[in-house]
Specification:
By secondary structure, the protein is an alpha/beta fold. Helices cover 47% and strands 14% of the residues. It folds into 2 domains: 237 residues, Rossmann fold; 161 residues, Glucose-6-phosphate isomerase like protein, domain 1 (Rossmann fold, 3-Layer(aba) Sandwich), CATH 3.40.50. α8 links the parallel β6 and β7. α10 packs across α15 and α12 runs parallel beside α15. Bound molecules: 5-phosphoarabinonic acid. The site of 5-phosphoarabinonic acid has 15 residues, from loops.
Length: 430
């Protein structure tokens, strides 16, 4: 059984989920189960039910070029953008923005997101619109999500038609209809790519391209990962083993599954992971109707070590902890302080990146002493290529987990029902 992969864009270490002390064993029929999950996944992919998996292929490159060209053109005429979206139409692009453009307000082209329709971000957007020439970028696959439409309705009087870009379903929904009538720029969200799987489509790529980020490299990374996964023998497929390990730990009662990055820039990436795994897998099982699904959670190292680690280590055994680290060649050294502190001399020659890596290793070692199961992703760099590969890997693993859990990973009936209830409340006479 394989538990370690060096995939170039990142390495994955699952060994501590499987070592003798940690207490799970493969099921007797695991080979059949893994092969079935992979075959069903491929079947769905071939029958156009898993759009994200084919998106990095060359046949879609025209759409990537088109959005890059539009972004390039608009960057010249504007100084910033107000981007509106929520859930899958926000988390992925914002997570990548945080990593690849961590200081957006210091750039020539500034981007502000409104992901929650409440007063503070709306007020900030109005200020931004007054101080610079801004685009409006409205992102909603369905074209009818209340929060996004509310923000857009409120701000729309500030924008002329040639300063509006909508990213939405190519044929359906209110935003598509409005874009046709009003003459706004419009980019498609591929119909077979669901919200939380859409970050590498126009949903994420356009706002990132506006910021001058090399979006083709994200796609290259995803394409590379697709080749790796398609080229792996089924029983050595890292996405399948990652999904299966987490699935088995959940079945064993360790349903709380953390992803803990050790770099502030990656905090939102772990929030994106939470949405992906929660909304895709927290479902009624298709055969039995039983409720299933893991409880993905995000935490940030090292700060959350100082709030959660005690619980992880000595609290009830309900968790697995995933570490996510990235090397950072630009990380400064702690350096010599302005005062004398000989007992802490050992700190001075370390970079912050080294400090965080060592802290993650110390935490992992300490958790092993407490027999808490862990796994680890290590990225050599936070580059677009590596991140594209990581995102694609997580999406594929999550879809494979959907096969193991026997749920439809691509719908979200609970969210849709809530949207309907909200609409009925909003349309009810006071
Ligand atoms: O993943 C999903 O499908 C959801 O999180 C949606 O992205 C979210 O509800 C927003 O929907 P829409 O993009 O249609 O506005």
């Amino acid at each position: 059984m394989k538990t370690q992969w060096n995939l170039q864009p990142f390495s994955l270490e699952l060994g501590h989920l499987w070592d003798i002390r940690s207490g799970i064993r493969v099921e007797q029929d695991y080979q059949t189960k893994l092969a079935q999950a992979w075959d069903q996944f491929l079947h769905k992919s071939k029958t156009n039910q898993i759009g994200f998996f084919d998106w990095p292929l060359p046949e879609h490159s025209d759409q990537v070029e088109e959005l890059k060209e539009l972004a390039q053109k608009l960057r010249k005429g504007f100084q910033g953008a107000i981007c509106m979206g929520i859930g899958g139409s926000y988390l992925g692009p914002m997570a990548l923005q945080e990593i690849l453009n961590p200081l957006p307000l210091e750039q020539d082209f500034q981007v502000q997101w409104i992901s929650n329709a409440d007063s503070a971000p709306i007020a900030r957007a109005k200020k931004n619109i007054q101080s610079k020439k801004c685009l409006a970028v409205v992102i909603s696959k369905s074209g009818g999500t209340t929060e996004t439409l509310a923000a857009w309705f409120h701000l729309s009087p500030h924008f002329s038609k040639d300063s509006v870009v909508v990213i939405t379903d190519p044929n359906h929904g209110e935003l598509r209809r409005l874009s046709q009538r009003e003459g706004w720029y419009a980019l498609p969200v591929p119909p077979t790519v669901g919200g939380r799987f859409s970050v590498l489509t126009a949903v994420g790529l356009f706002p990132l391209a506006l910021q001058g980020i090399a979006v083709s490299e994200l796609i290259e990374g995803a394409k590379h990962m697709r080749d790796v996964l398609m080229g792996s023998p089924t029983l050595e497929n890292p996405a399948l083993w990652y999904a299966y390990s987490k699935f088995l730990w959940d079945k064993q009662g360790n349903s709380i599954q953390y992803l803990m990055p050790y770099d502030t820039r990656m905090k939102l990436l772990s929030d994106w992971y939470v949405q992906l795994w929660a909304e895709s897998l927290g479902k009624k099982e298709l055969d039995s109707g039983n409720s299933v699904g893991p409880n993905p959670v995000s935490a940030l190292g090292t700060s959350d070590q100082h709030s959660l680690l005690q619980l992880f280590k000595e609290g009830p055994r309900k968790r697995i902890i995933g570490f996510l680290t990235a090397e950072d060649p630009e990380s400064p050294q702690v350096g010599t302080p302005a005062f004398s502190s000989p007992d802490f001399e050992y700190l001075t020659h370390r970079t912050f990146s080294e400090l965080n890596l060592l802290a993650s290793q110390a935490t992992e070692e300490s958790l092993h002493l407490g027999e808490v199961p862990t796994y680890r992703f290590s990225l050599p760099r936070l580059s677009p290529f590596n991140l594209g590969a990581f995102i694609f890997f997580q999406e594929t693993a999550c879809a494979l987990a959907g096969e193991l859990y026997k749920v439809n990973a691509f719908d979200q009936p609970g969210v849709e029902e809530t949207k309907k209830i909200l609409k009925s409340k909003l349309t009810a006479k006071p």
